[in-house]
Amino acid sequence: MPPPKDVVKIAIQMVGAIPQLIELQQTKPLASVLKDVCDAWSLPNAERYALQYADGRQTYITESNRGEIKNGSILRLTTSPDQEAERLYNGIRSNNVDVKTDSLKKLASLSQDVTFAQEFINRNGLKLIFCIVEEGNDTGEMLAHTLKAFMELMEHDFVSWETLSAAFIKKIVSYVNMNAMDASVQQLSLSILENMVPSSRLLFDLVKKEVTVDRLLTHLQVTNTQLQLKAMALLIALLLAATDAERRDMMEYLREKNIRQFIHKNIIHSSEPLGDEMAHYLYVLQSVSLNLHDRRMRTPMDPYSQEQRELLQSLRQAAFESESEAPTSNFSTERRRSLCAKEFRKLGFMNNSNPAEDLRRAPPGLLALDNMLYFSRHTPNAYSRFVLENSSREDKHECPFARSSIQLTLILCEILHIGEPCSETAQAFYPMFFGQDHFFEELFCICIQLVNKTWKEMRATQEDFDKVLQVVREQITRTLSLKPTSLELFKTRVNALNYSEILKLRQTERLHQEETLAVPVLELRERLKPELLELIRQQRLLRLCEGTLFRKISSRRRQDKLWYCRLSPNHKVLHYGDVEEGVQSPPIESLPEKIPVADMKALLIGKECPHTKEKSSGKQNKDVLELAFSIVYDVEEYCLNFVAPTRYEFCLWTDGLNVLLGKEMTSERTQTDLDVLLSMELKLRLLDLENVSIPDTPPPVPKPPSNLNFCYDFSHAEQQAR
């Protein structure tokens, strides 16, 4: 008979003693269990002891987490958290430097455990750490252990960041601002400040005032990649916590300091590979920068604004300057108005008598006007050529500059996600963004000339306007997907992808689709599907065996903590555990936690996951919902919660887990992979039928011939043989 579900078989170790194998009754009070264990080893004062996991993070066992103990777990009898907290508290107060250093080192390690952390904080342990930092007598290794312990204790949210004293904060700031300071101390100090910034407006103002942007830029220029990463993290935290006006000022200052060029040269194109964390920060920096256009994008033009009307007039004058040299002072008001209306019509405004009406739609609002003005002022020759070339065409074939600019601005805003909040996990940034100061405007200048080029290639008329812009959108998105490293390279590639190439690509895709719709081909597809689906299943399981690095995400900030999960080679156990930054593929033996596949009950995704329900429903959590999944396991239905680093990893893991559960693979990636494999297999099998039309029905079998009744005379052959 299987054991009752409230009984688990475990081993308990103690240094210098033979391990005990016991059946732990989960209904029995933990104090009674400890007394029985201590009695077996003849240990007095059972209340001074506690149980903790022997492997992994060595978490203390409490009444609240004892339900997580599994059959086969190995526990260790150790000093109770309150006794350990008291011992370390006294050790830190010791005058012996070695004792103090060892105590701080042990504190930094044990503070990851919530039970110990609470005991240490209850003894006013944080005040002790504050004193060490504020006095400033300790440096180097001892100070690093102190700051590490402080970080771990604050992670548990028992104490608010707002309670920190001004003296403590100034000391942390001084470590960041000092030139001759241990790198590990500066890294920890930057992490502490990064945590402080989003906690309150007061702390944000203090950090922003004390740690200048220039100082952060200095840290960004060091060769130590971890220090560089922490400096970037603090810079991003400051940008995200700032008001719109402050953010605009900070970005303008960063532009003056040429931070984009520095990032492009020394971070993106450095000899060191770009880590996931840095990639995320570069994505956020790109997103914050592009979102500075959001206000103009959402602001419609005010036809009664004198300033905005003058900007429109300057756009007209830049295009028709030579024509406007004729003195208009002798013209009547009506004549001048008629002349302006004619020129605005040539510019491509739909409402030429009142062009401001064309810009009343928001988005793109005034951002479209900004782009047109930038194009006219920074590339005046291209602007004049565009307008004059089209104004001399027949009416039905002219490409409307203003109308195209307004629609193109909207397309670029959609492609670049302007106005959307930053994702908490995304890492996709455009390297060429960091190679150019006025990226959005320069991109517009390239793309508006592309519109004119494509318009001519399509021999378009006004009725084809939407078709042309649809082709231009496709040209831009296809080129951006190649991740060009510079705007020049983007310009070369997008111009090479002309209308003929787009037609060829579309035709290839359409022919491929038509080929696959023939009845015999569809039948062949259905026969091939089971074999190819099995191939995809094997690939998914192999990917799970390789494992993936996951990040722990909280609602407060993007965590530095990492954990790794992988499937055993025999596909029977999931192994997982915490890992350090920089570990790519830890061996399966180093992952202490296990979940037998046989114990897995269900897979939850998105809103069904418990860790997405715990998070606030803020606008920044949409991407987490799309990447979240959980495994429900064991009879008690515990959950192991994941947030995948990318949508691709999400698809691979959810597919692989569904295979382990004996269910169908449901991700969009499965269908994509299946289509690719089917396409390749069909092409290989149909190579001999190239340029041969495949009939929908099989050809009729001909009637048997009239002379079918023949036979072979074996006897005649035998006689000849004799």
TrEMBL record:
Gene Ontology MF terms: SH3 domain binding
Pfam families membership: ELMO_ARM (PF11841), ELMO_CED12 (PF04727), PH_12 (PF16457)
Domain annotation ELMO: ranges: 307-480
Gene3D superfamilies: 6.10.250.810, Leucine-rich Repeat Variant (1.25.10.10), Pleckstrin-homology domain (PH domain)/Phosphotyrosine-binding domain (PTB) (2.30.29.30)
GO terms under biological process: actin filament organization; apoptotic process; cell motility; phagocytosis
Keyword line: Apoptosis, Phagocytosis, SH3-binding
Alphabetized SUPFAM superfamilies for the sequence: ARM repeat, PH domain-like
Keyword Repressor: no
Presence of the UniProt keyword Transferase in the record: no
Function: Involved in cytoskeletal rearrangements required for phagocytosis of apoptotic cells and cell motility. Acts in association with DOCK1 and CRK. Was initially proposed to be required in complex with DOCK1 to activate Rac Rho small GTPases. May enhance the guanine nucleotide exchange factor (GEF) activity of DOCK1.
The protein's name in its UniProt record: Engulfment and cell motility 3
Organism: Anser cygnoides (Swan goose)
The organism's taxonomic lineage, starting at the top: Eukaryota, Metazoa, Chordata, Craniata, Vertebrata
